[in-house]
Amino acid sequence: MLEVPANIYPWLKGIVGLVLIGALFGFGMFAIWVERKLSADIQERHGPNRVGPRGIFQLVADAIKLFTKEEIIPAKVDRILYISAPIVILLSVFLMLVAIPVGAVYVNGTEYVLAATQMDISILYIEAVSAIAIIGTFVLGYGQNNKYAMMGTFRNFAQMVGYEIPLGITIVSVAIMSGTLDVVGIVHAQDHIWYAFLQPIGFIVFFIAMMIDMGRLPFDQNEGEEELQAGVFTEYSSMRFGLGFFAEYFHLILGSFLIALLFLGGWNVPGFVTDNTVLGVILPTVVLVTKATLVMAFIIMMRWAVPRYRIDQVVDLSWKKLLPFSLLNLGWAIALGLYLGV
Predict the structure, then answer these.
(1) Which of 136, 147, 218, 331 would bridge 89 by S-S if both were Cys, CB 3.0 to 4.6 A apart?
(2) Is the pLDDT assigned to residue 277 strictly greater than 70?
């Protein structure tokens, strides 16, 4: 794998980062459209179909509406926290994006990873900066001076304490089997077989824990509208609400990419040999994006297949189910790693 020296084109990584941020916003709009259309198909209705072909410009109209709506800031909120909370949550997303590869390009047999930066402990870095969203959620709830928002914050903390441990143990299991903490190295370790097959229990545990991390149904306890109105977003309106809404879909996208990278082989295609063909330039990235899109579609369908869990059920699931199974998977990863000579 070829890396550009740090003293050559120092602005290159900045450009790559800006391109990735722009692509993330574009893919976020696509994710919202997919969810609305897929949900409509599941419920046997049309979904967005008026603005543009098959409603593809509906989100543009919604964004214009959010930008032009009056922003109402309640009188008794903490204005500094109220204004800064959506920014903190988006900061977590952009810091994660720095180290998540979104594909690769092969030219003359040399691999160029499409990532803003690479580091030896990228998977630990990603997990660490993802926790910043928890701080943002606390600021979000506390700054509103609203009991529903604060209850949503406490629920989010209860989830965090439960899911972070099995999530971290599962990541350690993957690192043990691959022999590296670098996401790119983990992808290369799956050249012949995906970890979803070598660690099926770990894959399921990681998938569920990641869904809880994303706050997706059936685990969206911090904004359960039946009990908490809009939860942590109760007092938000206009584009500040839109930023929080977008951040949720950004986490969905990046979480789907992580699942594809750690357990589904990333951009690897079994039996595909890279060379100087057009396929070597295009196919790896298309493969990774396709895998992430399929994972995202499955997560969206789960929204309509499983009823929302109560917060006590989520906590029980984390401590009584996910944690023991993650420890079991850790033992399996160690034993299999020793057997394979990793």
Answers:
(1) 136
(2) no
